[in-house]
Amino acid sequence: MNVYVAGSLWVVGAVGLGALIAYLVRRYGLDEGRPDNNDAAGQAFTIVGGLHAAVIAFVLISLFDAASTVRDSSYEEAQSLVAASWAADALPEPARTEIRELAAGYADTVVNREWPRMRDGGVLPEEGWDQLDRMRAVVDTADVPGDDDWLTSRKTEVADSLLDVFKERQARLNAVRDNNVGMVVWFVLIGGSVIFVLLPNLFGGTKSLTHIVIVSTLAAATTLLLFAIFQMQNPFAGGSKVGPDAFSQAIERLR
């Protein structure tokens, strides 16, 4: 489902539920003493609203930073892969050809096999790790004369670039697991949102229509924020998903 359609459905549902609750409270609730409670209810609303806003802001900023980090990390991983392949062009055969073929195969594996699994949270194949292990083994066994400083430096550069690929790959895989919002956080977010939206029903002095509009607006705004968190909790899926563009470009460079 389109992200805008899904978000609209969330908001419409929240608005309808908030309006219904506000109407029922004004229609069947007790009005006695409600205006006198405005000061106390206002203080409670301010405290709850401030705490809830702080929690939502913290979660959203963390998820936004995580998505930016994942995007930058994917480009660093792809660039290190290309750098390793280019540096390997100076190595003797068969290491030169094997590393280039393995690098291209690794990029293809990330784009076509790993990225779809990261989107849906499935188990990633071991092929990517195997390809990196084979590249490392090829570099280690490359026959480079000990007295040739230039070839030795090229071999060292390939090994260093592959080490960077290993590090960025692990960070990318960790992002799939670490960025999901836990059940406890969701409980706090949803529970706080419900309390925040229901508290205005304690206020008195406003007309019924005005009261319904206020509660519905709060429900809509809070639901939009929760929907944004839901969409951003997996940086490889949802409305702010990070695509495999870096590795698609790397495939073009490795041909």
Topology (SSEs and partners):
Layout: H1 3-28, H2 38-88, H3 95-120, H4 127-141, H5 149-178, H6 183-198, H7 208-232, H8 245-254
Mean pLDDT across the residues is: 86
Radius of gyration: 27 Å
Low-confidence blocks of residues: none
Shape: rod-shaped
How many helices in DSSP terms? 8
Tell me the β content.
Answer: under 5%
Helix amount: over 70%
Instruction: Kindly name the structural category.
Output: mainly alpha
Structure explained in plain terms:
With 255 residues, the protein is mainly alpha-helical. It contains 8 helices and no strands. It has helices at 3-28, 38-88, 95-120, 127-141, 149-178, 183-198, 208-232, 245-254. Helix 3 runs antiparallel to helix 8 (245-254). The longest helix has 51 residues, at 38-88. The model has no long low-confidence stretch (mean pLDDT 86). Keywords: Membrane, Transmembrane, Transmembrane helix. InterPro entries: DUF4239. It holds the Pfam family Bestrophin-like. This is DUF4239 domain-containing protein. The chain crosses the membrane at residues 7-25, 45-64, 181-203, 209-230.
Quickly list its features.
single chain; 255 residues; mainly alpha; 8 helices; rod-shaped; transmembrane; DUF4239; DUF4239 domain-containing protein; transmembrane helix
Short characterization:
The protein has helices spanning 3-28, 38-88, 95-120, 127-141, 149-178, 183-198, 208-232, 245-254. By secondary structure, the chain is mainly α.
